[in-house]
Design brief:
Nsp_de-COase; alpha/beta; eight-stranded mixed sheet; decarboxylase; elongated; about 30% helix; Lyase, Ornithine Decarboxylase, Chain A, domain 1; pyridoxal phosphate; spermidine biosynthesis; single chain; PLP-binding_barrel
Length: about 375
C-alpha cells in the first residue's frame, strides 16, 4: 500500500523516522556508557520491539502488563516502578523484571526480601522536591502532596540494606538544563546515599530527540554521576523514542458553517488522541496554519457525542471537502497506549511506513475489540 491507500483513521509510524531517533539515543549510550530504556507508557507498539531492542538496552514498565509485554516481546533488561504493588501480582512481576523500584520504604519492608531472594535488583524512588513544571501540576511529580517518591524528610537510611538503586523522575518534555537543576537538588539532598548505590535512574521526560535539545549537557550530566558515584546511569524516555515518528491519518466526514467553519472528522480527540484534551495541546496538522492565516478556517472536531470533542482550529488555503484526508503529526506517542472506544468508536488501524513509502497495516480493529472490553 501507499499512504493514500490506508484506511482512516490510522496511526502510521515511519520506520526511517523511528530509526533516526534510535540512532541518536544509541549514540548517547555509546559515548557515555549509560543505558537507555523504552518507557512503554508512551509507546508500546510491540511489533517494533525487535527494532527498538537492537538499539536500546531494554524496557521500563509501570505495571504487570507492561512488564510482561517488555519481557515477552523485547526480552532485554526490564525495569518496573509502581506507586504500589498488588500482592497477587508480585510474584509474576518478579519473574519478568530484573530491576524493581519501590515508591516507599513500607513497600520495601513488605516485598524487599522477596526481591533479594529472587536475585533481582531493588531500588527506591526519591522526590527531590525540585519542581520543573510550569502550569502543568498534573505532570509534576514534585508538586506539594505528591504521592510519587520519598522526600528527604521521610527517607529511612536504616532500611537501605539490599537497595542498589536510586530512581527519580521530575521532567516532562524538557531539556537538559532542567535535568541539571534536578541533579543539583538530588545531590544536595541524597548525595551521601548515592555512594552506596550500583545504579541511578534519571527517569523520563527527556526530550532528547527534539531539534535543539542540548545533548552535550545531557552527556555531561550522565558522566558526572557515573564518575563521581561509580554507578550505572539509566534513562527511560518514552516520547523521545518515537517523537515525530508517526502521524494520524483521518478523513473529513462533513463540513458546515456554525459561528465559523466546522469540519467533522472520522478521528476523535477524545478517543484517538486523548492528550489533546488532557494535556491540553493543539497537534500539528500538515498543510495548515493558525486560524485566519489562510483564507479558510475550520474548527476540526470528532464524531462523538462529547461537546468538547474538538481537536483545534486550523486554516487552509482551500475549502475542505468531504472525503479529504488530513494528517496530524507526532501521533505515535501517547496515542495507541491511551485510546479508547467511547461511543463505540472503532480504534484506528496501526500501520508502518518503510523507507520508500511502502506501507503495511500491522493491526486493524473492529466490533469485537469494542465488545470484549464490556
Amino acid at each position: 500500500m501507499r499512504r493514500e491507500e490506508l484506511p482512516t483513521p490510522c496511526y502510521l509510524v515511519s520506520l526511517p523516522d523511528l530509526e533516526k531517533n534510535l540512532r541518536l539515543l544509541k549514540g548517547i549510550m555509546d559515548r557515555t556508557g549509560c543505558r537507555i530504556l523504552l518507557a512503554q507508557k508512551a509507546f508500546s507498539m510491540y511489533s517494533l520491539y525487535p527494532l527498538i531492542g537492537s538499539y536500546l538496552s531494554g524496557t521500563a514498565a509501570s505495571g504487570l502488563f507492561e512488564a510482561r509485554l517488555g519481557a515477552k516481546e523485547m526480552g532485554k533488561e526490564n525495569h518496573i516502578y509502581s506507586p504500589a504493588y498488588k500482592e497477587e501480582e508480585f510474584e509474576e512481576i518478579l519473574s519478568y523484571c530484573g530491576h524493581i523500584v519501590f515508591n516507599s520504604f513500607a513497600q520495601i519492608e513488605k516485598y524487599g526480601k522477596r526481591v533479594l531472594d529472587a536475585g533481582k535488583s531493588m531500588g527506591i524512588r526519591i522526590n527531590p522536591q525540585c519542581s520543573m513544571q510550569e502550569g502543568h501540576a498534573v505532570y509534576d511529580p514534585c508538586a506539594p502532596g505528591s504521592r510519587l517518591g520519598v522526600t528527604r524528610e521521610r527517607f529511612r537510611p536504616e532500611l537501605l540494606e539490599g537497595v542498589e538503586g536510586i530512581h527519580f523522575h521530575t521532567l516532562c518534555e524538557q531539556d537538559a538544563d532542567d535535568l541539571k537543576t534536578t541533579l543539583d537538588a538530588v545531590e544536595e539532598k541524597f548525595g551521601e546515599y548515592l555512594y552506596r548505590m550500583k545504579w541511578v535512574n534519571f527517569g523520563g521526560g527527556h526530550h532528547i530527540t527534539r531539534p535543539g535539545y542540548n545533548i552535550g549537557l545531557l552527556e555531561e550530566c550522565i558522566r558526572h554521576i557515573r564518575e563521581k558515584y561509580r554507578v550505572t546511569v539509566y534513562l527511560e524516555p518514552g516520547e523521545a523514542v518515537a517523537l515525530n515518528a508517526g502521524v494520524l491519518l483521518t478523513k473529513v466526514l462533513d463540513t458546515f458553517s456554525q459561528d465559523g467553519g466546522i469540519a467533522i472528522l472520522d478521528a476523535s480527540a477524545a478517543c484517538h488522541m486523548p492528550d489533546v484534551l488532557e494535556m491540553p495541546y493543539r497537534p500539528p496538522l500538515a498543510g495548515s496554519r493558525e486560524a485566519g492565516e489562510y483564507p479558510y478556517t475550520y474548527r476540526l472536531a470528532g464524531p462523538t457525542c462529547l461537546a468538547g470533542d474538538v481537536i483545534g482550529t486550523y486554516s487552509f488555503d482551500h475549502p475542505l471537502s468531504v472525503g479529504e484526508r488530513l494528517e496530524f503529526g507526532d501521533m505515535a506517542i501517547y496515542t495507541m497506549v491511551k485510546n479508547n472506544t467511547f461511543n463505540g468508536m472503532c480504534l484506528p488501524a496501526i500501520a508502518v511506513e518503510r523507507e520508500h513509502g511502502e506501507c503495511e497495516v500491522v493491526k486493524a480493529f473492529g466490533y469485537e475489540d469494542f465488545k470484549m472490553r464490556l
